[in-house]
Amino acid sequence: MTTYRAGRPWRSATIGRIAAVALSLVLTGAVAPAPAAGAVAPVPATAGAAGGLAACPTDPATPKQQLRAMWIASVANIDWPSRTGLSVAAQQAEFRAWLDLAAQRNMNAVFVQVRPTADAFWPSPHEPWSQWLTGTQGGDPGYDPLAFMVSEAHARDIEFHAWFNPYRVANHDDPTRLVAGHPARKNPGWRFAHGGKLYYNPGIPAVRGFIEDAVMDAVTRYDLDGVHLDDYFYPYPVSGETIPDASTYAQYGAGFGSIHDWRRDNVNLLVKELGQRIHAAKSWIEFGVSPFGIWRNAATDPLGSRTSGMQSYDAIYADTRLWVKQGWVDYVAPQIYWHIGYTTADYKVLTAWWASVVKDTGVRLLIGQAAYRAGAAGQEAAWQRPGELTDHLQYNRQHPEVAGDVFFSAKDIRADRIGAVSRLVSDHYSRPALIPARGSAAAPAAPSITSATRLPGGISLSWRPAGSSSPVSYAIYRVDSSPAADPCFFADARNLLKTTRGTSFTDTTATAGAYTYYVTAMDRLHHESAPSAGRVVAATGPFSVVVDNRDAGFTAGSGWGTSTFSSQLHGTDYRFADPVAASDPAWFKAQIPAAGSYRIEIWHPANSGYNSATPFIVAAGGGNQVINVDQRVNGGQWRSLGTFTLSAGAYNVVGVSRWVSTAGYVIADAVRITRV
Q1: CATH no. for residue 374?
Q2: Beta carbons of 356 and 364 less than 8 angstroms apart
Q3: pLDDT digits over 273-329, tens only?
Q4: 295: closest CA among 279, 286, 306, 287?
Q5: How far is CA 619 from CA 555, 590, 652, in A?
Q6: Which part of the chain is the SaeA first Fn3-like domain (predicted)?
Q7: Residue 267 CB partners (closer than 8 Å, separation 6+)
Q8: Is there a single domain that holds both residue 471 and residue 571?
Q9: Which of 375, 528, 608, 669 has the fewest CB atoms inside 10 Å of its own CB, making it the most exposed?
């Protein structure tokens, strides 16, 4: 990837006095409360997992299908390995930690650099072992890193996309520093120096064939999910230098009007031919490119974007728009590494432009996101704002062509400077997501759950595929209590627990309540089966359920922020909001197994800056009841609101209202509902 250059929540002012009668009208139901946060008009659920078409409300914050990935860079030991010369055990432990981080952040793919500088992270017959493993080019690391990485990723049901840099030979320009058997030393006519680095000459047909062969060796020998090229094609411009390929143009450029058109054609041929070879060998492998974010500016070309930055079409000879329109790639992941409102290259402008390019082509759009800029020293003020990245993904929702995001790079996801990544995950990745399906193949048959057993550590599930079908992975869904099967359970990811490539799973988040589990099967291209028959697991002992603000049963509008400021929180964070003269409650939804009396308790952190009369709404059987709670005191523990008569069913049981005349944040963290 290219790096491009081009605590405590703030207190708000005290709101004015609010009429108590207006508050009463809303909270008692005389005025209907606002819809649950994120709810949209009913849309048809997809066939397959839903078992047919149905009108289902879906939450854009919990999408069913979305690719979520991070780049793991090996060149210069950016991410992995963290340095050269680590033992095999240390290298492997580091990589497992990256995968665990991806899983914790509800990501489902990694893009790992396996050919950074005309070398290899596997025993390639074409190129030497990478120097970034041992410190010595050609040095055997003592194991097969690519085989290890693919196996570990798939064990977590994380897709492994192998990332190749096509033309870069070395980050220096001294060929004698290359290992003696390096193809660039054995074939000096294949290379040139430019800007202090060595490159393979894209204009030589033998070079193109060699690069394709080097990539195809990994494709044919390893169980890859994707082949990924980055933005390095012809070298980026260097002041005072020209690319030294005039003699190559004289030899191979017949029929082209200019050396520039010829250079673009050389890259076009590599992309087209490599895609064809990959799909001929393994049709399921996804082939894509992450180009520089600007193709051309509209001032240069009316087909270009309303930007004014460097143009990859002209500067590095990457005609990515053509690759999309011709269908030579399965996806494109432009590196839109600029903030919203940036004059030269506005994130919104470029995202909308790329969405228009891929529209109706069958090529998927992923967005390359600059996690490396969030909170980093020296970056613009916009990148010092924790909400910049999350606002990017919020804007993406306006463009259904955007199928997901890839973040550069892994170390910045881990660093989580200024909490920007945590904010993004809370807002957009709170639930797992399936990889978007590709192609039109029939989905597998529905699997069958063979056992569901309560154990001390959770509920253990096992299942088997249907007949002779051979699914690649499975998705596990959990619904509270044991209602009749409903296609809307599967319309988004609110009930999705996990995906796995195994045939068993232990739900360690289960409590004593009753649940119904469903399992679906997916093929290599992520087509999802209809759900299995539901398997009910009965409640044990008195009914009690805890709903945290991170659970699927919690909903809140955009006016509610997320904080980890207080150590008295329940779970990993809590929600806060300013008082307003409007109804904007946060809701805790639960499945109440039967009508009866239930004790309702709340958990919240306490702080002198929080509200002294936060209205808690209880949807009791006889009508909504409101209990005002002083959240300045008694935090970090369960506090009883009282015992209430509740009706059976799944509904919003407890709400936290913002409509209050006293100053201070209102807090929504967790509720506990217990049958008495």
Answers
A1: 3.20.20.80
A2: no
A3: 999 999 999 999 999 999 999 999 999 999 999 999 999 999 999 999 999 999 999
A4: 306
A5: 15, 11, 7
A6: 452-519
A7: 202, 233, 234, 317, 318, 319
A8: no
A9: 608
Q: Mean pLDDT lowest for which of 234-238, 294-298, 672-676?
A: 672-676
Which of 516, 537, 558 marks a domain boundary?
537
User: From CA 285, how far away is CA 122, in angstroms rounded?
Assistant: 18
Co-location of 652 and 518 in the same domain: no
Question: Residues near 670 by Cβ (< 8 Å), separated by ≥ 6?
Answer: 546, 547, 548, 549, 570, 571, 574, 588, 602, 603, 604
Domain end position, chosen among 488, 521, 537: 537
At 91, the amino acid letter reads: Q
Spell out the residues 6+ positions from residue 433 whose beta carbon is closer than 8 angstroms to its own.
63, 64, 65, 66, 68, 106, 108, 493, 496
Q: Which residues contact 440 (CB under 8 A, 6 or more apart)?
A: none
Assess if residue 39 is contained within a domain: no
Q: Is residue 26 part of a domain?
A: no
What lies within 8 Å, CB to CB, of 586 at 6+ separation is 37, 549, 554, 555, 556, 557, 560, 575, 577, 655, 656, 668
Distant-in-sequence, close-in-space partners of 327: CB < 8 Å, separation ≥ 6: 361, 362, 363
Q: 557 and 502, same structural domain?
A: no
Give whole-number Cα distances, 161 to 69, 227, 321, 368, in Å. Answer: 10, 6, 22, 15
Separation between Cα atoms, residue 590 and residue 546, nearest integer Å: 9
My answer on whether 256 and 385 are in the same domain is yes
**Residue 225 CB contacts under 8 Å (≥ 6 apart), including other chains:** 109, 159, 160, 161, 284, 285, 286
- Residue 377 domain flag: yes
Tens of pLDDT, residue by residue over 260-289, are 999 999 999 999 999 999 999 999 999 999
pTM as predicted = 0.78
Q: 262 and 252 in contact (C-beta within 8 Å)?
A: yes
What does residue 44 show for φ and ψ, rounded to 5 degrees? -65, 135
Q: Which CATH number characterizes residue 503's domain?
A: 2.60.40.10
Number of residues that this document lists for the chain: 676
Q: Domain check: are 462 and 358 in the same one? A: no
Instruction: Report the b/e string of 166-179 with b at 16+ CB within 10 A.
Output: bbbbbeebeeeebb
Say whether both 533 and 555 belong to one domain: no
Prior bond to 81 cis, omega within 30? yes
Q: With beta carbons less than 8 A apart as the criterion, state whether 167 and 232 touch.
A: yes
Total number of domains in the chain: 3
In this structure, what CATH number is given to the domain that contains residue 565?
A: 2.60.120.260
In a domain, 3, yes or no: no
Cβ pair 272, 320 in contact under 8 A: no
Q: Is the dihedral of CA 493, 497, 499, 503 positive or negative?
A: negative
Residue-level pLDDT at 282: 98
Residue 306 is encoded by which pair of tokens? 């309303």
622 and 556 housed in the same domain: yes
> So what's the pLDDT on residue 468?
85
Same domain membership, residue 350 and residue 239: yes
